[in-house]
Every structure is written in C-alpha cells, then in structure tokens.
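Example 5.3 — 6-phospho-beta-glucosidase
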Amino acid sequence: MSSKFPEHFLWGGAVAANQVEGAYLSDGKGLSTSDLQPQGIFGALTPRVAGDSGIKDVAIDFYHRYPQDVALFAEMGFKCLRTSIAWARIFPQGDEEVPNEAGLAFYDRLFDEMAKYGIQPLITLSHYEMPYGLAQKYGGWASRKTIGFFERYARTVFERYKHKVKYWLTFNEINMSLHAPFTGVGLPEDSSKSEIYQAIHHQLVASAKAVKACHEIVPGGQIGNMLLGGILYPLTCKPEDLLETQRQNRDWLFFGDVQARGAYPAYMRRFFRENDIQVEITHADQQALRETVDFISFSYYMSGCVTTDKAQNNTERANILNMVPNPHLASSEWGWQIDPIGLRYLLNVLYDRYQKPLFIVENGLGAKDRLEADGSINDDYRINYLNDHLVQVGEAIDDGVEVMGYTSWGPIDLVSASKAEMSKRYGFIYVDRDDAGNGSLERRRKKSFYWYRDVIRSNGNSLKAK
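Solution (predicted structure tokens):
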C-alpha cells in the first residue's frame, strides 16, 4: 500500500534552546528573558543574583551532549530537527554591533553534526526568549528600535548558516503574546492592550523584514511563521456561539493573516476601533509587511470550545489558553483535552485560508513516565496519542492539504515551558533528571522510540487507523 505521506515528508522532532541547552551563561551568552523565568512562562519574573540557580540553567545539557542526542535522533531516522537559536548567545545584550563568535561557533558545530546524518535543521529565530538587555533598556518589543536589532540578528545568522540551514521560522507561537506578554514581547504582564498590540505590530514588521532578508541571503531558503494552533469550536449550534467562536479564532488567525497575506485584515481594524486600541502603523510598516512567508507552521496540542452562555462559560487553563472544555473529549494528566480529529480540521482550515504549504512543528503528549525495574519505559499512552494524531494528518493529506512535515514535541525529555518541570515528559528519549534538578542526565530509549522509528521507516504506513 502506498503511503498517504509524501515521499520527501520531513519527519522529526522539535525542541527549544532555552528548554534543552543549559549552559545559560557559557561562552559569552547574555541573560535572556527566559533566564528571568525560572518557574516557567507563568512564573514570576525573578531577577538573577549571584549564586542562585534554576532548572533551565542546565536543562538537559544539550549544549554539551548534542552529539549523543543527534545520534539518537538519527537512529530514529529523523529527516528534520527543529530547534532554536538562543538570540542572547549571538548578541548577549541584543544591541551590540558585533556578534559573539563563540555563540555562532556552537551552532556551526550543531548543524555540522546534524548534516553528518542527513538531518535538515528547521531553525526558529526567537523561541520564547530575547536578550534581557533589550527588555531592560528598550522595553522589549515596545520599542521600534528592537525591529532593527532583530533584523541585524536575523541577517547575521542567515549569512553565517546560509549553506547549512534551508528552513527557518521567525517567532515561536507569535500569538501567545496576547496571553503572556513578557515571554512573547518583553512587556510587563499588566500592560495595556494598546501597548501589547503595538509591541506585536513591531514584531510582525520584524518578522517580515526577516523573511525579506532570508529570501535575499539564503540560496533556496524557505521561511515560515509559527502559530499556536488554538482551534475553537462552538459549544452549541446557537448562532451567537458560532459568531463568538469566529471572533475568538480570529484573535490568533490574525497573526497568520498578516504574515501570509501581507496586510492587516479589516476585522482587526474594527476590533482596534471598538476597543480603543491605538497602534501606530506607518506607511513604511505597511510596505514591509508585504513580504510574506513561504509556509505556515503551527503547534497543535488540543482544541477548545466557546459559548456565550455565562452559566456554561467555565473556562479551564490548558496550555497557554483558557478554554471551555469539550464534554465529548478525554483529557491528559495536565488537563489538556485530546482531540486528534481537531488536527485534521485545523489543517483543512489553515490550507483553505492561506493556500500555502503547512508544517506541523509541535504536537505531543506530556505525561509522568514510569521507569520499570528493568529500565524500560512503556509509554503506550504516548504511542496511542501520536498514532491517532498522525492518522488524521494522513487524512488531511488525502483531503488535498499540502503538509511539508511533522516534528513532534519534544523528541527528548526537556524542561516544560509552562511550569519548568522535568516530570512533564514528552520524549521518545528519557532523561534522568527530576524537577529539583537531581539526576545523572543519562538518556534511555522509551518504547515510543522504536515505534516512531518504524513510523518514519515506513513513511507512515505502520500507523494504525481505528
């Protein structure tokens, strides 16, 4: 039987620098905004003092152990590995004119290691962090100056790695800034809507400038945006619920509309007007935004519901969003509802909307894995979750959706973004470290490691439809 997945489908996994690398001040790296969030993106902003430590300072020590980890990814057959460059490794304060050579050299070594195994890098320029110096001195993305600092950084890494990295992303889950402003745009959590949307606008302009730079510098380069795919369903068939669902979905689709279509949609102009949100958008900004992405990438973990009935509007925090639970779905240990069909639906929504190739760059199940007496980890729950989601990806491809690849989050256990936990494990590879930072950092293959290896070898033919 021929596979539904294209012949050159980019199978792999996804990690982020601040969740795996550690070495948080090594080789000239500056403090990042992530370093000021030792308890995760929902934890308090904590100034660093001499002698303190956080779990992300070492994380899983990927900075020193990447050859071992890349070899394990190659053993699974990865065609692609998504990671990010820590901006503060390249420009420690963010506003320097000359980059930090030691930081650049680290990513040269990493990309060379991946090339040994034929693994394509998919590189995010800014994944939930920026140099803290920019937040401190300029107010982060509140300042127009940050656009120029980001463009300098982007051009620096494009020039350095133009023959090593073909696939790029600008900002990780760019729509998340609406829910966690410090993590997304370096603003205080109590910032006004006008302040947040102005910072987001600067980020959108910077993203477009990076797209232009990539097209100019990287031979055959492709660059995409990255959305948190928080697809919402109406809780009932009441027209009011349908209209409110459309409005709330537009809260995040707006970011894709600007980056894929090159202009602000009319519904956002109405939203700004009716909510008294002031955003300075210059003629030069409008011209810059016309440079659009080559593909749409997104994360998908769960769906949610929307209702206008206040009696039923009991939202629950899941992932970064507050959503009304779907009564027809089961949930993970962390309360994230499991909806494989939602991934097929989302793929169709995005492809219908943009008619651009799509890339699923995050999807996975966080769970508390148990180490058996013989050292094995039998994570059938993860296998079932990923199998069911990938079956639906195959169905979307059959629907006519152009899907470039799939990078599961995260292929090796890492420090979770939301609460900086090791106990919330996603990987095919177990890392011996606990929430207190204890452990040998030894790597072990889980049962899902061999399952995913077979999926990739068979190009999806080993998946089991229900």
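Remark. The chain has one domain: 10-457.
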